[in-house]
Specification:
Strand order of the largest sheet: 3-2-5-6-9
Distance between the termini: 38 Å
Number of domains: 1
Helix content: 25-40%
Radius of gyration: 17 Å
Structural class: alpha+beta
Order of helices and strands: HHEEEEEEEEHHHE
Shape: globular
Mean pLDDT: 88
Length: about 190
């Protein structure tokens, strides 16, 4: 029975490589891959919520990472904790982008920091090692649907999007990811 269970797990991972594989997986045609990576165990119990425009896309905590794939072109990605951090992105199709997720001291709970990573960033090698050391965190579809519904019932996302447009769009909590900020395939 033990061998059947192991074989079943290996078959599942073989059929769904992007969900089970360590390392970098290229995006589907017309898309870009984004890796949100925490390189430190500092504040390991604190989780951050991640969004693409008005959609909740996942949550994770600790020294881990989450892979997200979205259409190339202009996109808004953001994270939520005590504060909100935004990334105005312009992704090139077929490329991979890295985002360093920092944890910062807050008044009531930890604050999130999002920093676009390039291969010249001092934290690039640490981020790359995290991706090769473990599988990505995958938020189950049921959790995404349930969280999205709860946030919509509270008007949370609508309120954040209004504040983004009116207050934060050009502020210090909004950073840019340009098309040329992808990581070359030979550096992944």
């Amino acid at each position: 029975m033990k061998h059947i269970t192991i074989l079943a797990l290996l078959a599942i991972c073989g059929l769904s490589t992007p969900l089970c594989a360590q390392g970098f997986t290229p995006p589907a045609e017309g898309n870009a891959a984004v890796y949100f990576i925490r390189v430190s165990n500092f504040g390991g119990l604190v989780s951050f919520e991640y969004f693409h425009n008005e959609q909740f896309i996942g949550i994770f905590k600790g020294k881990n990472y989450m892979r997200y794939e979205c259409p190339a072109g202009k996109q808004l990605l953001w994270a939520s904790s005590e504060d909100k951090e935004f990334l105005q992105c312009d992704f090139k199709a077929g490329e991979t982008y890295l985002v360093l997720v920092n944890i910062e001291m807050g008044a009531w709970k930890a604050r999130v920091g999002l920093e676009p990573l390039t291969q010249n960033n001092p934290d690039f090698d640490r981020a790359r090692k995290v991706v090769y050391a473990k599988k990505p965190i995958v938020t189950p579809a049921s959790k995404i649907k349930e969280t999205q519904q709860k946030l919509e019932e509270r008007d949370f996302i609508d309120n954040i999007m209004q504040r983004y447009e009116n207050e934060w769009k050009d502020g210090k909590n909004t950073k840019q990811i340009r098309p040329d900020m992808f990581i070359p395939k030979d550096k992944l």
